[in-house]
Task: structure prediction
Amino acid sequence: MSDLYLDLRDRLAVIDFILQETEYLDPKDPLRIEANQTLEDISAHESISMEDLADLARRVGRETWVPRVAVERYVATPDGADEEFRRIASSVSKSTGHLLERARLGRKPKSLTDILRDDSSKVAFGDSERIEIEELRSHILPSLWHEKRDEMKKLVAEADETLREIEMRIKALRELAFSSPALESELKSKIERLEDRLYFEGEVLNPERMDEEVALYREEKALPSSFKGAAGWSD
Result:
């Protein structure tokens, strides 16, 4: 599972994921309450199985996917980019803030992501500055979600529809796995990787590309056994 974003066998990594992503949930959300109680139980040395912890992480990842995607798209807009930049620049150390201000100086408003990906920033920002920015960003984005969610209604609706479409394709792959013993192992592995990218990494998978893969697997299922495995699959 080393190729996965979140190794569900790594107890500390799973706990860190739950801690970080539950910030997107309202304090009274039943899932956040459950997550907080589970983490308190762990702190009190209660026995929580990795299976239960992984299930909780998956539910948290799914429940927070739409807010995560919506806020990422919000900070890609001029207003959102400016809001995120100001909050980050005012919260980091003076030296890192100076680097951020200098990177943005004389340019049209750019998102923080664009600034950090710019070729010039690869020299200006070292590992310590990037770690500092990303750590703050992991808290500022959920804060933006709670404060600006009314401005993100369209983004939320779009993300919600996209999630529905993606999950329909994953369901189709799962149904193929149940009905195709020869492809079951391969399909389960693919579904695991897709759900890892979706729920844990927060990636927006391409429904059209998934349609192509579903069609290819259906074609593979119909081929004679001598032709099984002839097609190549990509993740």
